[in-house]
Design goal:
heterodimer, A: alpha+beta, Ubiquitin-like (UB roll), 5-stranded mixed beta sheet, 5 strands, about 30% helix, B: alpha/beta, TIM Barrel, 3-stranded parallel beta sheet, 10 strands, about 40% helix
Chain lengths: ~90, ~260
């Protein structure tokens, strides 16, 4: 029974991943609507936006700052709000 | 005797803090910074322009110059936005110092005191070295000091106005009651304004427009360095009392007179 249970679990995970892989996802990036496909992590979202992770960059997900070292480990979900900032000239 | 300005665990020889905004170009900015002797310059935190994705040249210039960076929360109108901006700045620049601005009014750019206190309290608790831009109100400054801010930065006049030190008496009251550094932030128009602030006993002056928008920013930066240094020396030297009538500087005896 235990084996069958874990198989069902595996199938569920597989199907869930396939579902996310082929579905589009709506995000808000810097206040603008952004559509992406699959279930990406934050680093992949930045890649798709052609934003390089470099000194000065910082990212917040739903008003919480995500350290650069955790971008690849942070999944984004439908409706998430992402802020991507950089220092600029100011007084 | 060493005469230095300290916030948190940082110590600076220069008492002049400059901005990075409004310069004709980055080269002029770097030259002006060098001429001013500044060791701490402000930067703003803004959303990356996803249609352009440029960036990097400002930080490149500043890193090359070796100046410390003081990120600001300019443009924030609520404690919530200012706190998130400060947190993003910390991640962005790997520094826990922040110039805390919470604006309450678009036309004057005067601070929203209520929101400023909320943001200051939260950021101090989170371990930030908080330098709040504030009105020249001693009650507010005392509250910011009690919260644990590393300095207070009362305005001399509205941001970018160049009107100089509009209320030196309020600054004197603030200076008398503060134990943390007092830095005049905003309002300086020319060198004498910076000198006045320093002569009053302020610990430093922060300015942007007065240098960046001068006809010759690099020359004005040098003037500001000298003004801040002169004002500081004059403060330490102790000025004479003001009197309404003259007191002769030369001896009254032995004056040459033609005998009749």
């Amino acid at each position: 029974m235990q084996g069958a249970g874990s198989e069902i679990g595996r199938n569920f995970i597989l199907h869930r991943d396939l579902f996310f892989l082929y579905s589009s996802m709506n995000l808000t990036v810097n206040g603008e609507r952004y559509e992406t496909s699959g279930a990406p992590n934050l680093l992949q979202v930045l890649d798709s936006l052609k934003v390089h992770v470099q000194r000065g960059l910082a990212v917040a997900l739903n008003h919480k700052v995500i350290p650069k070292s955790s971008l690849a480990d942070t999944q984004v979900r439908e409706g998430d709000a992402i802020e991507i900032i950089y220092p600029t000239a100011g007084g | 005797m060493e005469d230095k300005l300290s916030f948190g665990n940082k110590t600076y020889t220069s008492r002049l803090l400059l901005g990075t905004g409004k310069y004709p170009d980055n080269e002029t900015m770097s030259e002006a910074h060098a001429a001013s002797g500044t060791e701490l310059v402000t930067v703003a935190i803004r959303r990356v322009d996803l249609s352009e994705r440029s960036g990097g040249s400002l930080l490149g210039h500043l890193d090359k110059a070796g100046v410390d960076l003081l990120p600001n929360t300019a443009g924030c109108y609520s404690a919530k936005d200012a706190i998130l901006t400060a947190q993003l700045a910390r991640e962005s620049l790997d520094t826990n110092i922040v110039k805390l601005e919470v604006i309450g009014d678009e036309k004057t750019l005067f601070p929203d005191n209520e929101e400023l206190l909320v943001a200051a309290r939260e950021l101090v608790q989170e371990g930030f070295v908080v330098l709040p831009y504030t009105g020249d109100d001693v009650v507010l400054c005392k509250k910011l000091q009690d919260i644990g801010c590393a300095a207070v930065m009362p305005l001399g006049a509205p941001i970018g106005s160049g009107l100089g030190i509009r209320n030196p008496y309020n600054l004197r009251i603030i200076l008398e009651q503060m134990e943390i550094p007092v830095i005049v932030d905003a309002g300086v128009g020319t060198a004498s304004d910076a000198a006045v602030a320093m002569e009053l006993g302020c610990d430093g002056v922060l300015m942007n427009t007065a240098v960046a928008c001068a006809k010759k920013p690099v020359l004005m930066a040098e003037a500001m360095r000298k003004a801040v240094e002169a004002g500081r020396l004059a403060y330490k030297a102790g000025r004479i009392n003001r009197k309404l009538y003259a007191t002769a500087s030369s001896p009254l005896e032995g004056v040459v007179r033609m005998d009749d």
